[in-house]
Amino acid sequence: MSAAPTTHDAREFITHHAIELADTIPDAIQVVSTDGAFLFVNHAWTTQLGYTADDVRGMTFLDVIHPDHQSSWKQVFKTVLGGKPLHHFEMVLVAQDGAAIPVEGSIWALHSKGRPYAVCSALRNSADRTIGEQLVSRAMYRDELTGMFNNKGFLVRATRLLEVIEENRDRVGGWLLYLDVDNLDQVQRRHGDEAMNEAVLRTAQMLHKTLRVHDVVARVTKSGFAAMISLPPRYPPNYITARLRGALQLANRHAAKQYNVELAMGLAQMSSGAPVQDALERAAAEAALTAPGRQRAPLA
After folding, report:
1. What is the pLDDT of residues 138-192, one digit of tens each?
2. φ and ψ of 98, to 5 deg
3. What is the pLDDT of residue 290?
């Protein structure tokens, strides 16, 4: 049994059979006093975190809370003691070997004579769920070749950035940039699929190096890229396209291939209240004017 010594109040609710049951379930169960001292931990708790019953003696729950999460834990603790149980909360614990363990679960207070005397938590390791969600998110919102957002991911993230731009429209303006690798089909026909992928990746890397970290950049079609850009009023809209053309020249020179990447670019200013898709289509149409001989893939 991996329970730490309990107080009289804790013994009132942790019966022998309840302890046996707690040790058979996969969730980590812990009970701490109102000052944070451990009253009880089950077998799953000690197994997942690596502490022994002897380790737990004299410890408080703050000893196993990751330093970055101690402030939020104190708020959770205060909320629960105030009479509000939480059916879902997230925390990061520190295992005995120092590893950070993300957990999620529920937490509630135990009362005697109308007053809380302990806090009980049922926790589970959330790392597997997080990894699974990341994989699903990547498949849904990321381009497989470049790792950038795809069209769906772009519309989601760009809409969020547009909300920020709208809130600060007196200090910054929003622009939608569309870039098309105008000679991508030609590169594929003459040099093959590997060369086509290299041209796409060259473009993606150039955009990553040239645009700012808070700009939202995506590959939205086979040959098309889009970027949501915020610019202070003092910068003309062609400031960013001039930078990109210079960066593209350097990227082509450093690649030293038999082919260069050729880009058609279009800019559209974000309109207040208009959807991102509208600006994306306007920017793509402007890009098409610079290379009218190409048939572009639909953006939707």
Report:
1. 667 889 899 888 998 898 888 878 887 887 777 788 899 999 999 999 999 999 9
2. 90, -5
3. 75
Any idea which fold 8-130 has? Beta-Lactamase (3.30.450)
What CATH number has the domain spanning 143-289?
Answer: 3.30.70.270
What residue ranges do the domains of the chain occupy?
8-130, 143-289
pTM over 0.70: no
Q: Using CA atoms, how far apart are residues 63 and 40, in angstroms rounded to an integer? A: 15
Supply the pLDDT for residue 220.
95
